[in-house]
Amino acid sequence: MSEVFLLGNGVVVAGFSASCAVQPQVVSGGAVVWRGERILAVGLETELRRAYPGARFLDARGGLILPGLINLHHHFYSALARGLEPGAPLTNFTEILDRLWWRLDRALDPETVRISAQLSVADCVRWGCTTVFDHHSSPGCLAGSLDVIADVVDASGISAVLCYEVTDRNGHEQARAGIEENLRFILQHATHSRIRGVAGLHASFTLRDKTLAEVVERRPAQAGCHIHAAEDLLDGEASRRAFGLGPVDRLERFGLLDEHCLLAH
């Protein structure tokens, strides 16, 4: 049987509600007891020390003891952009994509995908983020890239919802390959306790109707989707110009806006 831990000498803040309808519970002199992946008790340290006399004590040193944080939109590979010099100053969203992010994702290989995931996951652990939704892109090593990331996540002990960014900016064959990567990963991790997959999409302005229709057709029932929406005025302007609808209305037309859809930005 695994060891029991007691984290004390802190202020426990628990009972967060996404709707803020419930006030969080604040316990001064509080503690949390757990074994393995299961929390056994939350309460006053004095009471929990008596209830679990053999627990290994960890000192919070007067800090806050919080539930794990959740990052609903991340790009693990962006860890490699820290300190990167793009050349001349980037003056608009198109230049940011063309000269920074799309140059970076095209340069990724399996090794740099793994390293970027390790850097990002280490940051998550350091700052108390225990669940993360990652939106990945690596056109040069697309197939199996989500497995590389999943291996890093699994070794860390955090939870993650992963996807590959489907886009037509690199041609429809690459878009279809992205759909296949998502589908394979979703099915492969359908019962995993900490890692799941969803359908990843870049943004309305880089997705043709044909590609969106294929995503809708291939996406398993109850599988979510993760897409950028209105990150910049360009998304709305280009979508209306090319398709006659703004990003959100277009996603609604294809039936993608449901309780499983995550719109970022």
Structure description:
The protein has 265 residues and is of the alpha/beta class. The chain is built from eight helices and twelve strands. The strands form two sheets. Strands 6, 7, 8, 9, 10, 11 and 12 form a seven-stranded parallel beta sheet that branches. Strands 1, 2, 3, 4 and 5 form a five-stranded mixed beta sheet that branches. The mean pLDDT is 94.
CATH superfamily placement of the largest domain:
Metal-dependent hydrolases
Q: Number of helical runs?
A: 8
* Major sheet description: 7 strands, parallel
Radius of gyration: 21 Å
CATH topology of the largest domain: TIM Barrel
The assigned CATH architecture of the largest domain is Alpha-Beta Barrel
How many domains? The number is 2
The CATH class of the largest domain: Alpha Beta
Mean pLDDT across residues: 94
Low-confidence stretches: none
| Oligomeric composition of the shown chains | single chain
Ends apart, CA distance between termini: 44 Å
Overall shape: it is elongated
What is the percent of helical residues? 25-40%
Task: Say how many strands there are.
Answer: 12
Encode the helix/strand succession as letters: EEEHEEEHHEHEHEEHEHHE
Structural class: alpha/beta
Residue fraction in strands: 25-35%
